[in-house]
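User: Can you predict the 3D structure for this chain?
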Amino acid sequence: MATEEIDPILKENEEVRQLKDSYKYGWHDATAYDEAPQKGLSHEVIDMITKRKNEPQWMSDFRHKALDYFYKRPMPSWGADLSGIDFENIYYYIKPMNQVQRWEDMPEAIKSTWDKLGIPEAEKNFLGGVSVQYESESVYHSTQKHLEDMGVIFTDMDSALREYPDLVKQYFGTIIPPNDNKFAALNSAVWSGGSFIWVPKGVSVEVPLQAYFRINQENMGQFERTLIICEDESWVHYVEGCSAPTYSSDSLHSAVVEIVVKDRARCRYTTIQNWSDNVYNLVTKRAVAYKEATMEWVDGNIGCLAQGSRVTTRSGMKPIELVTPGEDILSYDDSKGELCWRAVVAKKYSGEQPVREVRLGMRRLFVTDNHPFYSFVYDGEGAKKSGRYELAYVRADALTEAIVPRTSIEYGEPWKLEMPELVTEFQRAAYEETTDDLLWFFGVFTGNGHIETESKVVFSVPTDDRARTRLMTVMSELVPGTEPTERKDGVTVTWNSVELADFFEKNGFVTGAREKRIPNWVFSLPESQRLSFIAGYLDSDGCSPSTRRRFEIKSVNRWLLEDAGEILATLGITARIYTESWDEKRVQILGYESVSHGSHRLEFPIDERLLERVSEPLREAALRQPEAVLRTGRIVGRSNIELPESVEVRKVDVTEPLATVATWDIEVEGTGNFVSEGFIVHNSKVTMKYPAVILKGEGSKAEILSVAYASAGQHQDAGAKVTHVAPNTQSTIVSKSISKDGGRAGYRGLVRMDDGATHAKSNVRCDALILDADSRSDTYPYNEIEEETGSVGHEATVSKIGDEQLFYLRSRGIDEVEAMSLIVRGFIEPITKELPLEYSVELNRLIQLQMEGSVG
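Assistant: Here is the predicted structure, written as structure tokens:
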């Protein structure tokens, strides 16, 4: 699939359209805005925002300066899907309506959104205050009266700027300055809405405050700004929730959160998000804790290929979006070291996302940044004797080498041939469907055959050509009784047959050196027929050069060579194309002067399966050449990991994001991997989240709690970052991970202790629960200790559900799925007990859906 073919290659059918609507929060509401929104980013847009909000001059200056920073700073290299953002195709400010004071006064179109999400019930039963943002503006705000009486300020950010300008100016942009990173600069320039919380000295807010952010408009940019200030000896718990519908094009969520926790104060920040797959969620959040203050983060993580990416089924190649649950697709069994068939459990439309190309020769796959490839990682802490490399799945945007198949597996069916309309000497019974001989014949035609005047089929095969004898045999069976005409040049032979010419054209083989392509049906043939096609192409246009043992095919038609390279990829053979010239030039071919319209060379290693199918002269020429020495092979790194014969390690090229296209996930049984376009990949996204705290005051504390659930094909990477700056600071990190159906969950964290942070202490605990033999858990702690008196402890446990536990629960009438769910809920109880009741229920419900095998 060439780069220009990234866009969807098939019409959407009804099934595809229905699947796109499966995202839980994927609805959108018809909303009347107070004026027609405008797309695009400029200083004029900032002037419009500040004028409509009637902001003070210092904020206007702040915004314009931030926009200049945004223009100057390059796109960051970290994160996912960044380079595909079209900043000129985004609404930077949309105001749907003025804020209302009573829920009953909310317009029905907007109120129905939160009725679906249960926000009024949450306000009534669980929360001390609610702030609701729809697009760019807060549309509803409510704080319980007793909190207002205590002096607590909980309002939207725009109201805070109007009503508490000095307080906002004192802290705004001090924790995260506008030049911190490109997206912090963007937020600083166009921010709108968000939450402002100020808790007076000594005041404890015993019930949570919540803000809910909803994107409704397609191509919407939401840039809320949240500022939380906890004065000395105060306490607050803030809960953030977000959602957006699924659209065919993307929206951008780029928030900035600044938290100041003063002496002996305490702040807890809980994040519950359900963004759809078409939202870029690029958020900068930072908290600073002062003397004896405590900052807490609570985070729950319940976690693609481009449409048109082909996977291999038993009947042949098929685009990923047309694969059906229950269907077998090609997978890799790493325990046996061989390719195998595994069933598709489910599939899911993942929205339109930016994709980049991963390329190994003619193996090319378009994927999102976070799609995992079978590869390896280096563990510098591992023992040298056992090797410091281990097999793993690596994100596309971090991929440098991949483990790829070097063989294939039998699949596909012979092609039912299209016969010519006129049948005279053409024998229909001879070839009703494809055979090895006929595919070799089609390969020869691809290399040196063409059609003249709709009735003449011409092959350039001199009498001493290596393909001559076999070609004549096949033709005698295909058109018996029809004698070819030898031309005087001794180079070409012609069959005069309207039916034969029609036969080639009906089955997709066209004439013209620069127009030829390989028909799609060839890719889904049995292995022997695909090999025979390549052998025929080699016998007509190929060679084995004298430098080393390999095959080459030259052509003026690069696209034809790309087709051949893709067929080779289905056979586990890596091919590369080298362009010698794009320009026209005069050349000598078989003693005749001709015009060459460019020159391209397809090169690939010799495979034993091909050697036995090519002509004897070409086989002997190939075997005379010295063995090729691959720079990479079946040894992983400088370790003792030797891969089986079925796969090898190869360097790959990964582009920057190229285009935004429809993407799909599939869930595969067992270990969850599958083969697409010659690569072994996992079937879902990688999630990476790392809350951060800076412990700036003596005696300050950080507590970070997170839970990650990885089901089939998922890689959940959760963790934390804590920087100890002051003496006697403490941090506690608790990470709970659950892996099921081949999922992979891990902890990746950074603990840093600066010089001068005397007697700082950090304790990291990572608990993993693995539910089956195919799943995996990893721990990657990073410690940077510059203070000799600092102390860091790390404890990791891995456990599995025991048969005794299941037997006990099942003996009391609980089925196996519910029994496992009960065990899992008990495992994550230290996290859920820290959530407000409604969110604890929601997290447990999501776990239950995962235990039932749901996708999403």
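The mean pLDDT is 75. The radius of gyration is 32 Å.
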